């Protein structure tokens, strides 16, 4: 049996806000006690995680004095060094404070937009101090419930201006951050700006320093709107823009459930792991999920262990898939190689002319069964441990 013990080399990360989630929901109070940041560091390191990510406010409340900040940051850094955990990614809470209720970078109030820049710069300073090299932008309040305010085009401009400002700030400070935009279709806003991975990729191309920007896709976010997460991730990889990934699980068409990785849609999650592993993705595998509200602290660590264990089991299945001779033969038969035809698909005037005159066995092409039922069933057999 393969060793399913996670190690830092697996690059699994959690957020202070994920394992630290105390179980509050819109209908009920927290069901668990808060944990201190150094305690969370110690527990995650013992479980084999690589790092812990955070929002500014997860560690330093916005009302903290300078001495409180220095104590909180000092204790956290000490725990990181004692337990060998990294902070690969940092981000800003631009959603909790009522000041951001109608947006941060996209607020119609210029004072709010300026405050959002100030808060983000300070948070980038903190992230850099903790060693983070990646900075995530999740536009939690960037969106609308009603469009009567007429700010749709302005919002995109304000969003772009803010990201351009912050990339310039990072470069001027010598921080060297790479940035990842995290799309989400809705929740907490009725409709959020840049709702999908595709939208974010399109927007990134309009930024001044677009080479510094990529995406942080989240399983739950694409799934909420009925999209196929693996397809979104493939597009990000193809564009060279998969800078980070938020792993969790989700039933389609629901509120953002942030379920344990693999808790719900095992087969889709398998194809995702296959994609990450086979594409050579080397970034963090960040579990942006939380334990069920029903759970006590023991349940939180069972949740964290479960996320990593399921990833490792699926990675093992990916390897088994690659060495399964029946599976590989079926896959080879699925792809029809025809070098002469392939050569014609590069445009030259000659190829275009040849292709126009080419005779095709149209009925034969339509009659061929590609064997996908067989391949898919082999996948199910493999996942259920029958191979
Ligand atoms: C959510 C988001 C957040 C972000 C986090 C980091 O749905 O609440 O996924 O968890 O990932 O704010 O940017
Ligand atoms: Mn989310
Ligand atoms: Mn997320």
> What is the average per-residue confidence, as pLDDT, rounded to a whole number?
98
Largest sheet: 8 strands, parallel
Helix count equals 16
What's the CATH topology label of the largest domain? TIM Barrel
- What is the N-to-C order of secondary-structure elements (H for helix, E for strand)? EHHEHHEHEEHEEHEHHEHEHHHHHH
CATH class identity of the largest domain: Alpha Beta
End-to-end distance: 14 Å
Helix content: 40-55%
- Anisotropy-based shape: globular
DSSP strand count? 10
CATH-defined architecture of the largest domain: Alpha-Beta Barrel
Neighbour order of strands in the largest sheet: 8-6-4-3-2-1-10-9
Q: Can you tell me the number of structural domains?
A: 2
Unreliable residue runs:
none
Distinct bound molecules: D-gluconic acid, manganese (II) ion
| Proportion of strand residues | 5-15%
Radius of gyration: 23 Å
Q: Output the structural class.
A: alpha/beta
Give a nutshell description of this structure.
With 387 residues, this protein is of the alpha/beta class. The chain is built from 16 helices and 10 strands.
What are its keywords?
about 375 residues; alpha/beta; TIM Barrel; eight-stranded parallel β-sheet; two-stranded antiparallel ribbon; 10 strands; binds D-gluconic acid; binds manganese (II) ion
